[in-house]
UniProtKB/TrEMBL annotation:
Annotated GO MF terms: hydrolase activity
One Pfam family named in its UniProt record: Beta-lactamase
Organism: Teretinema zuelzerae
Protein name: Beta-lactamase family protein
Record keywords: Hydrolase
Record domain Beta-lactamase-related: where: 32-353
tRNA processing is among the record's keywords: no
The keyword Hydrolase is annotated on this UniProt entry: yes
């Protein structure tokens, strides 16, 4: 049986307006996945009105046995949740007048100054409508191309732009981590430092996200929970190793730190007296930006797909408020922020399997069912 370890909480479930019995249901659900060997570990945090009322973790910290138990404050590779940090960084630079939303990428990256790519803007990158290659497997192709192998090569931008576009800019939503790689490069050139350094300086530190970073400090590597052997081997090069696409999937964080980031958005851009973004910027980032833009979305045809700036609206069904924004990351982890209920649900699991609704959808439905 999965043994749950309790993390720090601020208020009781009752004071938060949450049915405590649903916490037990959620823990049992994740515990059954762990006991069945479908995931190695799980952790989840829930907060309402700025107070954490549930914070737990269970399972194995390492990819193989024997392994110590995973802790609630374990650090995990956030994968694609990195994109919302990159989007926030880009919008900070927009606020400072160093970028503008309709700015053509070619004004900062000369490789984009072509008839095919010249009309791609910052807004297109933020909304996954640039027409650049979608993630491998997005179109359900049986043998997807691994575009990420060239990310660290000197000519990676030219390699990315080789071949035809997948769509005309602005005409179609195609989930593109490579597009966010470019967005990270745009941030770096506008800020005069790497996107990772800029996010750590302008977002992580001001928000008190003390266990979030891009290059893992040597003293914290042992606290990073891993899913597979390659992850453990990958960490052996730290510190100083550049992790893949810093704009698209390079961040490490914890459930508590994700909560602080999410709460900043619920607060209109501030936390503990520190303003990270303007209120109007937060409203823009968490508002649907698309109108009638089609999306294939991994086998599901969506005529009116909804997408904010960085933040997504992947929530299906009536279990969340329509304005609930979120993002997911491979491995798998998720962050849901419901402004109508002032509710945050952050979760991670350790698994190398493909996306599975039993791991990603059902727990979220259970979590939201407890709101009173």
């Amino acid at each position: 049986m999965a043994q749950w370890m309790e993390g720090k909480i601020d208020v009781s479930a009752e004071k938060a307006g949450y049915d405590e019995k649903r916490i037990a249901v959620l823990a049992d659900y994740y515990g059954n996945l762990i006991d069945a060997g479908k995931i190695r570990a799980a952790g989840f945090l829930m907060a309402r009105n700025g107070g954490v009322f549930c914070h737990r973790a269970a399972g194995a910290h390492e990819y193989s046995d024997p392994s110590p138990a995973v802790k609630p404050d374990a650090i995990k590779r956030m994968a694609s949740i990195t994109k919302v940090f990159t989007a926030a960084a880009a919008m900070k630079l927009v606020e400072d007048g160093k970028l503008w939303l309709e700015q053509p990428v070619k004004t900062l990256i000369k490789e984009f100054d072509t008839p095919l790519h010249g009309n791609i803007t910052l807004w297109h990158l933020l909304t996954h409508t640039s027409g650049l290659p979608a993630d491998g497997g997005y179109f359900l192709e049986p043998y997807p191309i691994d575009h990420y192998e060239f990310i660290n090569k000197k000519d990676w931008i030219k390699r990315l732009l080789a071949g035809p576009m997948q769509a005309k800019p602005g005409s179609q939503w195609n989930y593109s981590t490579l597009g966010y790689s470019i967005l990270g490069e745009v941030v770096a050139r506008a800020a005069g430092m790497s996107v990772g350094d800029y996010i750590e300086q302008e977002i992580f530190k001001p928000l008190g996200m003390t266990r979030s970073f891009f290059t893992p400090p040597a003293e914290l590597i042992g606290e990073i929970t891993t899913t597979e052997k390659w992850e453990k081997d990958d960490l052996s090069g730290a510190p100083g190793k550049r992790y893949y696409s810093l704009g698209g999937f390079g961040a490490f964080s914890t459930l508590s730190d994700l909560m602080r980031f999410a709460q900043c958005f619920l607060n209109g851009g501030t936390l503990d007296g520190n303003r990270i973004l303007g209120r109007k910027t937060v409203e823009t980032m968490t508002r649907n930006q698309l109108d009638g833009v089609p999306s294939f979305h991994w086998g599901k045809n969506c005529v009116n797909f909804r997408q904010g700036l960085g933040w997504a609206f992947y929530c299906d069904g009536p279990t969340v408020s329509p304005e609930c924004f979120n993002h997911e990351g491979w491995g798998w982890c998720s962050l849901f922020v419901d402004p109508a209920e002032k509710f945050i649900f952050a979760a991670f699991t350790n698994t190398h399997e493909d996306w599975n609704p039993a791991v990603m959808v059902n727990p979220r439905t259970i979590a939201f069912s407890g709101i009173l």
